[in-house]
Write a structure and sequence with these properties.
Length: 196
């Protein structure tokens, strides 16, 4: 899998936080992703009341959409601002509590209880902390993860998935020699080697 000069590229948490602070969030979609709507049946697979995970969730509007359908949503992001913006932009009351297992970690939960967003590094999560999920909506996570961390990321995701869960993944295809990323180029061959 040739990702060219991107192989060595590293984005720090501080750089991501700066993007949120500066409002440089072109990756955020105001109206939900059309591919989630198109493939929702694949994600749900005829099931209701699922636990759905949003890795590197930001303030994704799809979290409320799925919660309103009766699913339980869990997200994670390093940006506290993004998570608070999510609740305020949807006028959702929430409570904030520390996560003792994670140094500096916080959890923001809707008062209805069906949306729980963790503010921490995704690598601080484990199935013992957040449980396992019936579905994953990975719209911008794998393509945001540093190329050197992809194996670690995929291993975590596999560990967080129930046996019969559905994983919807969106990637971007382009010439990695012309754009330094993120979003990073993830060839299909690498997706197959990461997730099987």
């Amino acid at each position: 899998s040739d990702v060219g000069p991107q192989k060595e590229r590293v984005m720090t948490e501080e750089e991501w936080l700066q993007k949120w602070e500066m409002g440089n969030i072109g990756f955020h979609k105001e109206h939900g992703h059309p591919l989630l709507q198109k493939y929702l049946d694949v994600l749900l697979n005829g099931r209701s009341g699922l636990r759905i995970f949003f890795p590197l969730c930001g303030k994704a509007v799809e979290m409320k959409w799925l919660a309103d359908m009766g699913h339980s949503v869990v997200g994670v992001d390093v940006s506290e601002q993004a998570l608070k913006d999510f609740f305020s932009e949807h006028s959702l009351p929430y409570c904030e509590e520390p996560v003792p297992e994670i140094s500096g970690g916080k959890m923001f939960q809707s008062t209805s209880g069906n949306i729980s967003l963790y503010c921490c590094s995704i690598y601080d999560l484990s199935s013992s902390l957040v449980g396992k999920f019936d579905g994953v909506w990975d719209r911008g996570a794998l393509v945001a993860v540093n190329p050197c961390d992809r194996q670690r990321y995929a291993s975590l995701m596999i560990n967080l998935m129930e046996k019969n869960s559905s994983y919807l993944l969106v990637t971007v295809s382009y010439d990695p020699y012309k754009h330094k990323g993120p979003p990073f180029y993830v060839p299909e061959s690498e997706i197959k080697s990461l997730f099987g």
